[in-house]
């Protein structure tokens, strides 16, 4: 069993583990398993070894929250000596001369960045494949690891690294975490500060881990808020549960609804008030999310110098649609949705829903398929996720059970109002204590 990030850092700080050995063991696991899992676009073997050696002699080693912890970083952020690929052959390939804010915070905390994880082109879809490979679900490799942080979720679920960085614009942390059976948190808007906000403020950096404790530790580093690393047992909360698929009211697979029922049972037994209640999901909210889903990647492709002619055909279609829908991105639509969410969370502290609205798609070369064939399953599986990006509220995926037929994890989503990250992680820790899940494959 791979040690948790908390265990590794504690042992390194105490002089019981050597960061170089920890990194070598992670690289060995990657070399053995990643040809099947496909989690990494780039493994930084030599550079990671050198960075681990530097951590080992740091004078502040005994103070580092992530001392010697191997970390995977989603391939969307600047890392010295690497280019951010964004799952594409159409973007700039110039290596970064300095770390971006995410890599800089990880290194300052003592982490060792072992590699960059696979994403779909421009992070548009919830399946992470590119011409170099397919990120597969370590629990059942015939299924996708999800996306767009699919490589990060797969790396954690396979035990290649204990924690990984992800980003979430419309569910891109929570969806792959739910598919792979790990913990994934999308923090609220502005919790992890960065120079620019992607997708019109909907995208957020966050942690993927096998335990709530590890997720809290990584969040505390990404947010530069040490107090978030400490988990606390929440007092009695007013919890709403809902299995109604937003907007479409489509039928929900029975195992996904059963996971919500099980979570409700566990939370009720833990002393919380649990009722059935569903927010009102107006059509204007769906339209606002779709407009941003199209326009966000189009804006990024133009700003970052992507060659439209070299984008994958499905991506070219998406970007062209985004140029048309950009004029529909209005702050008013977000304000209208916030008025609904604020009223709902005035009566409830937490909302529990399924993390996925359908079973995960199969693992295949989705990047070769035409846009409609990819967009439809993407929109369907993500139905519970995106509206919380629009609101800017924290939301977390946590494992609960398994599908009876093929053993895939079944997970729930916990949502709280602004500032509720610690509450969600505390509830997830209580669920873990009452209902432990397998940490890795």
Provide a compact summary of the structure.
The chain is an alpha/beta fold.
Mean pLDDT, rounded to whole units?
97
Strand content: 5-15%
The domain tally reads: 2
Strand order of the largest sheet: 1-3-2-6-8-7-12-13-11-9-10
Structural class, from secondary structure content? alpha/beta
**Unreliable stretches:** none
Fraction of helical residues? 25-40%
Sheet bearing the most strands, described?
Answer: 11 strands, mixed
Q: Provide the gyration radius in Å.
A: 20 Å
Sequence of secondary-structure elements: HHEHEHEEEHEHEEHEHEHHHEHHEEH
Text of the CATH class of the largest domain = Alpha Beta
Kindly report how far apart the N and C termini lie: 9 Å
Overall strand count:
13
The name of the CATH superfamily of the largest domain reads Amidase signature (AS) domain
CATH topology of the largest domain: Amidase signature (AS) enzymes
The coarse silhouette is globular
Task: List the total number of helices.
Answer: 14
CATH architecture of the largest domain: Alpha-Beta Complex
Keyphrases for this structure?
AS_sf, 441 residues, Amidase signature (AS) enzymes, alpha/beta, 39% helix, single chain, globular, 2 domains, eleven-stranded mixed beta sheet, 13 strands, two-stranded antiparallel sheet
Describe the structure.
This protein is of the alpha/beta class and 441 residues long. The protein folds into 2 domains: 5-229, Amidase signature (AS) enzymes (Alpha-Beta Complex), CATH 3.90.1300; 238-283 and 328-434, Amidase signature (AS) domain (Amidase signature (AS) enzymes, Alpha-Beta Complex). It is 39% helix and 15% strand. The chain has helices at 5-13, 19-37, 45-56, 101-108, 150-157, 174-180, 212-222, 254-269, 283-303, 313-325, 331-347, 371-381, 387-391, 421-434; strands at 40-43, 70-74, 112-117, 129-130, 133-134, 163-168, 183-186, 204-209, 238-241, 273-276, 350-354, 395-402, 409-416. The strands form 2 sheets. An 11-stranded mixed β-sheet has the order 1-3-2-6-8-7-12-13-11-9-10, with helices on both faces. The longest helix is centred in the middle third of the chain and has 21 residues, at 283-303. The radius of gyration is 20 Å and the shape is globular. The N and C termini lie close together (9 Å). The model has no long low-confidence stretch (mean pLDDT 97). Keywords: Hydrolase. InterPro entries: Amidase (IPR000120), Amidase_dom (IPR023631), AS_sf (IPR036928).
């Amino acid at each position: 069993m791979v040690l948790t990030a908390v265990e590794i850092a504690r042992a390194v700080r105490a002089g019981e583990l050597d960061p170089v050995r920890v990194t070598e063991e992670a690289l060995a696991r990657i070399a053995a398993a990643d040809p099947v899992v496909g989690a990494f676009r780039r493994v930084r073997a030599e550079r990671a070894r050198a960075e681990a050696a530097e951590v080992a002699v740091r004078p502040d080693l005994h103070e580092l929250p992530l001392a010697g912890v191997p970390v995977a970083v989603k391939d969307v952020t600047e890392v010295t000596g690497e280019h951010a690929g964004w799952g594409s052959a159409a973007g700039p390939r110039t290596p970064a001369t300095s770390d971006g804010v995410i890599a800089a915070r990880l290194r300052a905390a003592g982490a060792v960045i072992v590699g960059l994880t696979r994403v779909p082109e421009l992070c548009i879809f919830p399946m992470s494949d590119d011409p170099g490979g397919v990120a597969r679900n370590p629990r059942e490799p015939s299924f996708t690891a999800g996306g767009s942080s699919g490589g990060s979720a797969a790396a954690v679920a396979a035990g290649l690294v204990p924690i990984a960085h992800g980003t979430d614009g419309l569910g891109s942390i929570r969806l792959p975490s739910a598919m792979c059976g790990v913990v994934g948190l999308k923090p609220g808007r502005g919790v992890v500060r960065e120079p620019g906000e992607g997708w019109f403020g909907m995208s957020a950096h966050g942690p993927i881990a096998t335990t709530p404790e590890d997720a809290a530790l990584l969040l505390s580093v990404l947010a530069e808020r040490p107090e978030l690393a400490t988990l606390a047992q929440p007092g009695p909360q007013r919890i709403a549960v809902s299995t109604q698929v937003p907007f479409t009211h489509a039928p929900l697979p029975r195992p996904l609804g059963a996971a919500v029922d099980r979570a409700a049972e566990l939370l009720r037994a833990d002393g919380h008030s649990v009722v059935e209640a569903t927010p009102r999901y107006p059509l204007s909210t769906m339209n606002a999310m779709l407009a941003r889903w199209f326009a966000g990647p189009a804006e990024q492709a133009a700003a970052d110098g992507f060659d439209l002619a070299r984008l994958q055909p499905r991506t070219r279609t998406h970007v062209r649609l985004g140029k048309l829908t950009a004029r529909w991105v209005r702050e008013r639509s977000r304000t209208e949705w916030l008025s609904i969410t604020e009223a709902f969370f005035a009566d409830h502290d937490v909302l529990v829903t399924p993390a996925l609205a359908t079973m995960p798609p199969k693992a295949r070369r989705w990047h070769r398929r035409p846009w409609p064939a990819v967009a439809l399953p993407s929109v369907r599986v993500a139905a519970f996720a995106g509206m919380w990006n629009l609101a800017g509220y924290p939301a977390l995926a946590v494992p609960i059970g398994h599908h009876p037929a093929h053993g895939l994890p079944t997970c729930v989503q916990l949502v709280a109002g602004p500032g509720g990250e610690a509450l969600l992680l505390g509830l997830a820790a209580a669920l873990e204590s009452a209902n432990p899940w397998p940490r890795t494959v």
